[in-house]
């Protein structure tokens, strides 16, 4: 999916969070958004997802103005820390997928997706019993269950172990290779993990696109 | 033993011969089905106190109904309808207050409970003070329900279960993850509006069975027990219904046989089942069981 942001400024109760942010992503681009806490990373994502309502003609998805964009299933989202989900009530991985699926998908395609995410054996498990890394993969599978062509990941590897993190990036890289546009929010990006081709650094709501080499030489600031 | 079987035989004979017992049993089974189904969604959304809040607000409607009927002699029919209307108004009031106090949503409950209780006290007094009708509203009177109520209950149960079946996926995803439901393009506000109204209706209808003071327990306790046993959403729901129905039937039996208040016996059976579940879970899971589950989960990751 193509994503275009034109000079977007956004404020919470008159407190400016984004200032004149612009962005242009083509199909299959992989953008990493870096920046300190409070720099506006999650706010930008919320604007693109339509959670934050933005003025007209500021964000376009596949050329369509975001306030008129109705095909929400084309966007997959893995939230930060997954704490919006009510965990303690029993529900299996399979049941989560079932209630999240609103587009046609054959059962064998669903099983192939589970297999690819490494959650095939977990499909009948109660999600209460899963580890952080397993949960993270379940939620990427959920984001992929409607076959989206934009995947947005908000600090997806916070709090999971190194091996799960590596596995996670392999899956995301594969999806990107197949043409899915990826926006990954991160505040400590490590080299060699994801096959991103763009980096945007947010500082106090101002965006600057930088080269990957520059980022790894000089860090976030 | 002989006395026990005589009591059981008497209960079964009453069920066969007495129409009021048949009405009570049908009502009990319908409420026993509907309450934990609705209760599950309430528990997931961490709104367990909403049922009690609505039942108190519904009591205000019932006492206003009694006042209109008995004192002003207005032909309003059954005060139950005023009670149902108030439960729905209370539900909408909670929703309005929850969106007004976004970061302190639970504030809405004590405000609506206080308003409901104050109005109830006022109109109970205006309607001539405490009497049997009020007592029945407070503690339930399943043995006195009439044909009309059974009909309303049956239709309501059928319609609500049908709606849940049709919108099952959307209702479940909204309950578990409201923000994600919005992202999928589901009109969460519309669903919330209708589920609030449905909740109000179920609460006010359940008042006949267990009374204002115990309605919440009918919705919450079977679910609280089931969620400690169930491994999936569907099995948890089925276990909650099973616990609820067992409590209703045993409660009805004791209530008929010994003249105990029906609401109290039904709720006490629910509590008994919950206690048994907690104790059995404690016995069968070693102190390190949770760590073991976590370790197994880690191993699976490797």
Q: What does this molecule look like?
A:
The complex is a heterodimer of chains A (221) and B (302). Chain A is α/β, with parallel strands linked by helices and 221 residues long. Chain A has a single domain (3-88, 148-218), classed as Rossmann fold (3-Layer(aba) Sandwich), CATH 3.40.50.300. Chain A contains 6 helices and 10 strands, in the order βββαβββαααβαβββα. Chain A has helices at 41-49, 93-100, 107-117, 132-144, 162-177, 212-218, and strands spanning 3-12, 15-25, 30-34, 59-61, 64-65, 75-78, 150-154, 181-185, 198-203, 206-210. In chain A, the strands form 2 sheets. Chain A has a 6-stranded mixed beta sheet, sandwiched between helices. In chain A, a hairpin with a 2-residue loop joins β4 (59-61) and β5 (64-65). The longest helix of chain A is centred in the last third of the chain and has 16 residues, at 162-177. The mean pLDDT of chain A is 84. Chain B is mostly helical. The longest helix of chain B has 26 residues, at 19-44. The model of chain B has no long low-confidence stretch (mean pLDDT 88). The interface between A and B is large, with 38 and 36 residues.
Provide the descriptors you would attach to this structure in a database record:
heterodimer; A: 221 residues; alpha/beta; 6-stranded mixed sheet; 4-stranded antiparallel sheet; globular; B: ABC transporter involved in vitamin B12 uptake, BtuC
